[in-house]
Amino acid sequence: MALLLSCFGVAVLGMIGLLLFYPKLTFRHFSLDTFWIPPLLGAIVILATKSLDISRFWQGLTAPTAMNPLEILVLFFSMTFLSAMLDASGFFEWLANRAAKRAKGNQFLLFFLFALLAGILTIFTSNDIVIITLTPFLIAFCKKTNIDPVPYLVAEFVAANTYSMLLIIGNPTNIYLSSAENIDFLAYLKVMALPTLFAGITSFALLLLLFFKKLKMPFMIVTDEVKIKDRFLFVASFVLLSSCIILMALSSYLGLPMWIISLGAAGLLLVLLISYGFIAKKSMRPLLEGAKRLPYSLVPFLLSMFAFVMAFDQNGLTIKIAQWLSSFSSPLLSYGISSFLSANFMNNIPMSVLFSTLLVEGNAGQEAIYSTIISSNLAAILSPVGALAGMMWMSILKEKKVSFSFLRFMGYGAIISIPTVTMSFLALYLVL
């Protein structure tokens, strides 16, 4: 037990240290994320020392359950690929340009439109996709119009990690946690609609208060025209992504797992793009660029943390934590607050892997499950450690030379996240 806890502590502290000081290793034109290395090494140690039986780990990876991490990875990567291809067509940039034109020099309207755009795109793609695609555009746009990018970047980040709660596909943590109780697409949406609405209104009101003075200044009216770069790519990716979301909403009625639907849509898009490229003699560059943007680091990271959770279960630690959390009079608060804090210590993905087991072991009800889902999304707003989206966002800002420190992130994050998560819990209480 001592070895297991030591390995876990070193893995988490190592991950946080690398995120803060050495987030990437660069070799000429190739860069590598580093955050997954300590958890992977820790997982190797616990497997080598029998703190986790290799056969038990393999059974967990191959078990035909809704919490199978390999199936969840397939679902997440398929949806990310579909969204990345839609972005490669120029669709997101075209939408952002249209929003900027409609603002007509009014920063308040522009601020609202960009926050709305980030929220809508997150609902139908994912928070990670919005961070990857919209952040560079916002930085370039603000430099061009000579306005402070910070209000828009913070609003985009908050919206992306707020509206990701609405659908199961908005965040891989939603998928993992809802799988703990076999919650389907529509059942999830019915419960999470009101908490998402409360969180969206609360966070936007706080953003307006924080940046009111900066938004009073006018900005240069946008006249540039942005067009869809590749119409075939746009139509194919848009139709398949939309169809995929609709089919996933009906997955429980169709008797098809969501990962099979998303994999089928992504596979069909891949075949269409390759076939069209050969027939029309088009460049495969958009396809290659989209493939490059997939978050491959998530694979060793998620599997390593899954190994730790299985080791906790094998050594009896999981049941003790679950019993302690279930001893409180309000599981909504005990699971919600503890998961919110845990995500900002170990990141929301390993937190979700751990809590998915705690929810089952503690025989927790819907209040506990959904409050943990809320925290897995909103925890990202408090600190960059809270989610992969925060890590990617800070990395992009550093790359684009936008000054925004870890402490400044936490300053804004505390002001926004705590009232927002409180209002979300209130809405959840009203729903359930």
Please tell me about this protein's structure:
The protein has 432 residues and is mainly α. It has one domain (2-431). Helix content is 76%, strand content 2%. It has 21 helices and 2 strands. The chain has helices at 2-21, 37-48, 54-62, 69-88, 91-103, 107-124, 127-145, 150-162, 172-179, 185-215, 231-249, 251-254, 258-280, 285-292, 298-314, 317-326, 331-346, 348-361, 366-382, 388-399, 406-431; strands at 24-27, 30-33. A two-stranded antiparallel sheet has the order 1-2. It is globular and about 65 Å long. The protein starts with a helix and ends with a helix. 50% of the residues are buried.
Based on secondary structure, the structural category is mainly alpha
Distance between the termini: 38 Å
Continuous helix count: 21
Describe the largest sheet: 2 strands, antiparallel
Strand content: under 5%
Give the radius of gyration: 21 Å
